[in-house]
Write a structure and sequence with these properties.
single chain; 258 residues; Rossmann fold; 8 helices
């Protein structure tokens, strides 16, 4: 299926690994021009070797000075912007709310929620010039269900959905659509780390914690980052032109989180 996005100008945050890397590659495979940023310099260097056509910057999205520099660099190579994918995020701490270090809370909110604001506020003026403009924000099933021992992450991801719905309402008159993707248990080192931390908190094995998490999921398999990437690319294509303000689950039907 030709998604008709050749030449689409795309910026993907945290694009050097995981969902971000899969998304950047999926756009590039459709002929889009893609710029990524990441805090991991080694991962960016690996992308330079494996995907030289995808341009890149070092950026911490919680740092507004760094984000301003990112947009200067991205716009210089892309020549404009049609799609912003706010993918950057951290897992945040695991523990009961009274055990959470306020510094860890602040960092999780700064990256996972405020980072999306930092990027979006600079993107809007450029997206207004596009004939096919979209913003895709990464939320989570933790933004739709209570996630015990994960209050900073859950708060940030619920906030992302509210932020997305506000953007859709504000920006629709300019032809800019905004949607949130809510992944479930995504295959990769991050979810394995979360499982390990929760298992320690509950004093159970890694395997038992994994079973608990999948107890509230109909399709009991980890989500492939590529599945999420393909949803994002579709939303950014002309076929997604009337989809906005939605929280779209790619989760195997997650009904609860343990």
């Amino acid at each position: 299926m030709d998604l008709d996005i050749k030449g689409l100008r795309v910026l993907v945050t945290a694009g050097a690994s995981g969902i971000g890397r899969a998304t950047a590659r999926a756009f590039a495979a459709e002929g889009a021009s893609v710029h990524i940023c990441d805090v991991d310099r080694d991962a960016l260097a690996a992308m330079a070797q494996s995907d030289p056509a995808i341009t890149r910057s070092v950026c911490d999205v919680s740092d507004r000075t760094a984000v301003a520099r990112l947009f200067e660099e991205a716009l210089a190579v892309l020549g404009g912007l049609d799609c912003l994918v706010n993918n950057a995020g951290v897992a945040g701490p695991t523990g009961r709310v009274d055990e959470i270090d306020p510094v860890d809370w602040d960092q999780c909110i700064a990256v996972d929620l405020t980072g999306q604001f930092n990027c979006t506020r600079l993107a809007v003026a450029h997206l207004k010039q596009s004939g096919n403009a979209s913003i895709v924000n990464l939320s989570s099933q933790a933004g739709k269900h209570g996630f015990p021992l994960r209050s900073p992450y859950g708060a940030a991801k619920w906030g992302v959905i509210g932020f997305t719905k506000a953007l859709a309402a504000e920006l629709g008159e300019f032809g800019i659509r905004a949607n949130a993707i809510c992944p479930g248990l995504v295959e990769g080192p991050r979810i394995q780390s979360v499982i390990a931390n929760k298992a320690r908190s509950f004093n159970i094995s890694h395997e038992e914690m994994t079973e608990r998490l999948f107890g509230g999921v109909s399709i009991k398999r980890f989500v492939d980052p590529g599945d999420i990437a393909r949803h994002i690319v579709f939303l950014a294509s002309p076929f997604g032109r009337t989809t906005s303000g939605q929280e779209i689950s790619v989760c195997g039907d997650t009904r609860m989180l343990a």
